Amino acid sequence: MSFCSEDLGAFYLDILKDRLYTTKAASHARRSAQTALYHITRSLVLLMSPILCFTAEEAWDIIGGGEEDSVLFHTWHDFPQMPAASEAELVKKWQAIREARNAVTAAIEPLRADKSLGSSLQAEVEITADADLAAALSALGEELRFALLVSKAVVKEGDALSVDVHVSGGQKCERCWHYTEDVGTVAEHATVCARCADNISGQGETRNYV
Questions:
Q1: Closest Cα partner for 49 from 67, 21, 70?
Q2: Measured between alpha carbons, how far is residue 149 from residues 178, 197, 207 in Å?
Q3: Taking the model in full, what pTM does it have?
Q4: 122 C-beta neighbours (distance < 10 Å), count
Q5: String of b and e for 21-52 (b: at least 16 CB within 10 Å)?
Q6: 88-98: per-residue pLDDT in tens?
Q7: What domains does the chain contain, in order, with CATH numbers?
């Protein structure tokens, strides 16, 4: 339950939506997200099958099982493997990023409560963090804002974790809902940002992390 509600629902699926909704349909960013969701879904269906057998059977049919197949014919799902050291390092890195995201969310909430801003995407944040956390956050580059669900994120090194929040002065893109200064800069897509315009009719953006 904790994995589904916190790790999956409140974090992973939350930050994955932008990549699924805004990148090009056949892009590596979107297809890799769909592949990850397939592995997660298949694993969860197999885990629930001994208890919720009828529900699992219906879900199994939707994700690729056929009339001659049954979820009960299968054992646990085998995820793609990666070196144990790399996996441990990746878990540590994303735990740190989630710590920063929690701090950002907490800093944004008072502004949402007093109606200074609507959604978190209207916010721009400046994060002060110790050297290790600052390095982990900075490693995401421009994609940090997607992990934090804000329109702009700047990181600087300091003694302790703190977050300054500012209301963005940019315009809202009607496609991705991010607030940027480049909305309308592509003439044929006057109401969307340059990133979305590229995803609609250009080569499309590249995502490396988020």
A1: 70
A2: 9, 20, 15
A3: 0.89
A4: 22
A5: ebbbeebebbeebeeebeebbbebbbeebeee
A6: 888 899 999 99
A7: 1-73 (1.10.730.10), 84-169 (3.30.2320.20)
